[in-house]
Specification:
about 700 residues; alpha+beta; five-stranded antiparallel sheet; about 70% helix; about 10% strand
Length: about 700
C-alpha cells in the first residue's frame, strides 16, 4: 500500500488532469441515461399482472389510459375536444359517452350503468377515456398527458397514473439539482465547524462530487435508473463516503507530526493507512447496499447496484483525487486554519464509563417501546395520494373521486372464445361484489336491447383482439386500500373459475402484488444484510462475540428510528421499511467498527478494561460526531425540502437514523464493552498480549 501511496503522490498532477477530463464523458453519459418514473414496472415480470400488461400492449396496442374530467361542457364541445385530443401523438383512442354507440343509434338504448360511468348529470360533469399506445411510464405517454392538459379548459383535468408520473417527472427534474446544493451547503457548514480549515471542506465536497458524477455516469450499464435512485444517489453517496475523506485528512495530520515538513511522505503514508482502514470499513457499507439486490421488487436492485458502485467510486476518489487536491492546495489549507469548535471529549468518555450500568438499564427500558413501535409503524403504497395538492394530476384524481365516486379501475384479460353466456355471468358475479361501481364486457353491453351491430367496429377492436378479450371493472375503493386489495382477490377468484389463464391487470392489482412482494422482501433483505455484516465483522475481528455486540447495538438504533413514526402517527412510504434499516445498518456500523478497533488496540497494549474503553471512546467520539453530523446534514435538508414524499420521508429517516446511531454507539456500545469485556477478549483475536489485564480492579471493587 505504501508503494501505491507514493505513486499517487508522485503522479498527483496527472491524476487531477485525468480525473477532470473523465468528468466530460461521465456527465454526457449521465444526461443520456433514461430515468424510469414508473415504480410498478419494477415488479417481477413473471407475475400475472405484469404478463397482463405485456398482453395489453402487444395484442391491444394499449399500454396506459387516462380519465379526463370535463365540467360544464356540452356534447358538441366534447366531440370537438375528443377530435383534438385524438390528434395528440401516441393517443390511440378517445372514448366518451357519445362515441360508445354508433352515430345513428340513440345513446338512450345503452345500459344505464354505461351512462352513469361517463356522465354525472347532477354535477354537469362528463368523463373522457384516453387510451395510449405506450406504457404509462414511457416518456411519450407522459408528454401526451402534458399536451392534453394544455388543451383543456381551466376546470378540466387529466387524472390517472400517467398524469401522476408526468407530474412526478416534472417535480423530480426541478428538485434533484436542489437536493445536491442543499446537501453540499449543509455539509460545508458542518465540516467548517468541525474541521480545522475552511478550504478542506471544499476539497472534500469537490472530490466526492466528482465521484458522484462518475457513479451517475456509469448508470448506463443498467439501461435506466429509477427516479428515486437518481434523486437519492448523490445525497447518499455524499453522506456515506464522507467518512473516508475525514479519515484521510486525520491520518495526513498525524503523519505530518511524524514526518515534519515532508508533506509528500506524510501523504504517502496517509494514503496507505486510509486504504487499510477504509477498505474494511467500506465493505460493510457495500454489503448493506448489496443486500437490497436480493429484493424481488427490482427497485432494490436498481438502488443497491448504484449505491454499492458509489461507495467504490468514493473509496477510489478518497485515495487518489483527494490526496492530489490536498497536496496542490496545501498552502491555502494552512492559511485558512482555525480552531475546531468541538468540546472536550474526555468529559463524555468519563461519564459513559462511570455510568455504564445506568445507560444499559435505560437502553433496555427504551428497547421495549421501540420494538413495539417498529412492529406497528404504518406504511402506505398509494403512489399518487401523497403528491402535493398543487399538482394537476392530484387535482384530477380528486375531481374524479368527487364527481364520479371512482377509485381504482382495472382490466380483465380472458380468452376471446369464452361464450357470451359465460361472459355475462362472469360480469354479473363481479357486479354483485361490494364496492364494484361498473363491470362491462362486449357481451354484457350487447344484449337483447342492444344489437351487436350498434357497437362501432372501433369499440369492438378495443374489447376483443385475437385470442384475448378485455373487460373493464371500476371500483369505489382507492388503490392500495385494504378494501380494494380484498376486492381484487375476490375478482381473481371469480375470473379463474371461468378461465384459468385469465388475468386482472391495472394499478390496483399491481399494487396488491407490490404489497405482498415487498413484505417478503423486507424479511429477506433484513436477514441478508444482518447476515452479511455479521460475517464481515466476524472475519475482520476474528471474533465470535463482537458480531453479536456490534450488530445488536446498530439494530437497537434502527428499532428506535423506525419505531418513532408509530408514536408520531406518521405513515411511511413502503420502501422506507425495507431500505432504511439496511442503509442505516451498513452506513453507521462503521461508527461501531471505529470504536471497536480503538478498544481492541488499547486492550492489546495491556491497558485495563476501563482505561481501554475510556481512551477508545475519547479518541473515537470526535470522528463519530463529525461523521454523523455530516450524514445528518446531507440528508436532513433534502427531507425538509422535497415535495415528493417518498424521497422526503426516506431522507428524514436517514438523517434521524444517523443521529440516533451516533448516540447509541457513543453511549451504549462502550457500556456493552464494559459488561462483556471478558467474553470479548476470550472469543476474539488480537485483544490479549503478555501484559493483558484479565479484570479491572476498580470495577471489581464496585
Amino acid at each position: 500500500m505504501i508503494k501505491f501511496g507514493k505513486s499517487v503522490v508522485k503522479l498527483r498532477i496527472p491524476i487531477l488532469i485525468l480525473s477532470f477530463l473523465l468528468l466530460i464523458p461521465a456527465g454526457i453519459s449521465y444526461l443520456n441515461t433514461k430515468v424510469n418514473y414508473d415504480i410498478l414496472s419494477y415488479l417481477p415480470s413473471q407475475i400475472d399482472t405484469m404478463k397482463g400488461q405485456d398482453v395489453l400492449l402487444d395484442k391491444f396496442g394499449t399500454g396506459a389510459f387516462s380519465f379526463v374530467v370535463l365540467d360544464g361542457m356540452e356534447d358538441r364541445e366534447i366531440k370537438d375536444l375528443a377530435s383534438e385530443v385524438k390528434k395528440v401523438d401516441h393517443v390511440k383512442k378517445v372514448l366518451w359517452y357519445g362515441s360508445v354507440a354508433d352515430a345513428s343509434i340513440p345513446t338512450e338504448v345503452l345500459p344505464s350503468e354505461v351512462e352513469k360511468f361517463f356522465k354525472n348529470r347532477a354535477k354537469d360533469s362528463q368523463l373522457m377515456v384516453v387510451l395510449y399506445d405506450k406504457s404509462m411510464g414511457d416518456d411519450v405517454t407522459m408528454d401526451a398527458t402534458d399536451k392534453i392538459q394544455s388543451i383543456l379548459k381551466k376546470d378540466c383535468f387529466v387524472s390517472g397514473m400517467s398524469a401522476v408520473l408526468r407530474d412526478t417527472k416534472q417535480l423530480s427534474e426541478k428538485e434533484v439539482f436542489a437536493y445536491v446544493v442543499i446537501s453540499a451547503v449543509l455539509c460545508f457548514i458542518v465540516l467548517s465547524i468541525t474541521m480545522d480549515s475552511f478550504i478542506i471542506p471544499i476539497l472534500f465536497l469537490l472530490s466526492i462530487g466528482m465521484a458522484v458524477i462518475y457513479n451517475l455516469g456509469t448508470n448506463f450499464v443498467q439501461g435506466q435508473i429509477s427516479y428515486i435512485t437518481q434523486a437519492l444517489a448523490a445525497v447518499l453517496q455524499l453522506a456515506v463516503t464522507m467518512d473516508y475523506s475525514i479519515f484521510l485528512w486525520h491520518s495526513y495530520q498525524e503523519n505530518q507530526e511524524r514526518y515534519g515538513d515532508d508533506h509528500l511522505r506524510a501523504m504517502s503514508h496517509a494514503i496507505s493507512n486510509t486504504i487499510t482502514s477504509v477498505v474494511g470499513s467500506s465493505i460493510t457499507t457495500v454489503a448493506g447496499f448489496v443486500a437490497l439486490c436480493f429484493m424481488s421488487f427490482t427497485l432494490g436492485l436498481d438502488l443497491g447496484v448504484v449505491m454499492a458502485k458509489g461507495v467504490v467510486f468514493g473509496v477510489l476518489g478518497c485515495v487518489t483525487v483527494l490526496p492530489a487536491m490536498i497536496l496542490v492546495f496545501d498552502k491555502w489549507i494552512e492559511k485558512t486554519r482555525h480552531r475546531v469548535l468541538l468540546p472536550d471529549m474526555g468529559i463524555i468518555s468519563d461519564f459513559v464509563v462511570k455510568h455504564f450500568k445506568a445507560i444499559l438499564l435505560i437502553s433496555f427500558i427504551i428497547l421495549i417501546p421501540s420494538v413495539w413501535g417498529y412492529t406497528h409503524t404504518n406504511v402506505y403504497y398509494d403512489l399518487a395520494g401523497t403528491m402535493p395538492d398543487s399538482l394537476k394530476s392530484k387535482q384530477g384524481n380528486d375531481e374524479l373521486a368527487k364527481n364520479f365516486d371512482m377509485g381504482a379501475t382495472s382490466m380483465i384479460l380472458t380468452d376471446s372464445s369464452m361464450s357470451p353466456k359465460d361472459s355475462r355471468h362472469l360480469i354479473k358475479e363481479i357486479k354483485d361484489l361490494k364496492g364494484v361501481k361498473l363491470a362491462v364486457s362486449l357481451d354484457s353491453i350487447v344484449g337483447p336491447s342492444v344489437p351487436e351491430e350498434v357497437i362501432p367496429d372501433e369499440v369492438k377492436k378495443e374489447l376483443k383482439s385475437g385470442k384475448y378479450q378485455l373487460m373493464l371493472v371500476t371500483s369505489e375503493y382507492k388503490t392500495a386500500s385494504d378494501e380494494i386489495n380484498a376486492q381484487c382477490k375476490q375478482i381473481e377468484k371469480i375470473i379463474k373459475r371461468y378461465d384459468k389463464s385469465a388475468k386482472l391487470v391495472g394499478e390496483a392489482p399491481c399494487t396488491k402484488d407490490l404489497i405482498n412482494i415487498t413484505n417478503e422482501d423486507f424479511k429477506r433483505v433484513s436477514v441478508v444484510s444482518i447476515g452479511a455484516i455479521f460475517i464481515i465483522i466476524l472475519l475482520v475481528f476474528k471474533s465470535i462475540s463482537l458480531p453479536f455486540v456490534l450488530v445488536a447495538v446498530i439494530e437497537f438504533a434502527i428499532f428506535i428510528n423506525m419505531g418513532i413514526p408509530a408514536y408520531t402517527n406518521t405513515t411511511l412510504p413502503f420502501i422506507a421499511s425495507i431500505v432504511i434499516g439496511t442503509i442505516q445498518l451498513g452506513a453507521t456500523v462503521d461508527y461501531a467498527i471505529l470504536m471497536t478497533n480503538k478498544y481492541k488496540k488499547n486492550r492489546f497494549k495491556g491497558m485495563s478494561k476501563r482505561d481501554s474503553i475510556n481512551l477508545a471512546l475519547e479518541s473515537a467520539t470526535q470522528s463519530i460526531i463529525v461523521s454523523a453530523l455530516t450524514f445528518f446534514a446531507a440528508t436532513f435538508g433534502v427531507g425538509m425540502y422535497s415535495q415528493i414524499d417518498m424521497i422526503g420521508s426516506l431522507c428524514s429517516l436517514l438523517s434521524r437514523g444517523a443521529i440516533i446511531s451516533m448516540f447509541v454507539v457513543i453511549l451504549v456500545l462502550p457500556s456493552m464493552f464494559m459488561v462483556f469485556d471478558r467474553v470479548i477478549c476470550s472469543t476474539s483475536a488480537g485483544f490479549k498480549s503478555e501484559n493483558f489485564h484479565v479484570a479491572d480492579e476498580s470495577v471489581n471493587r464496585e
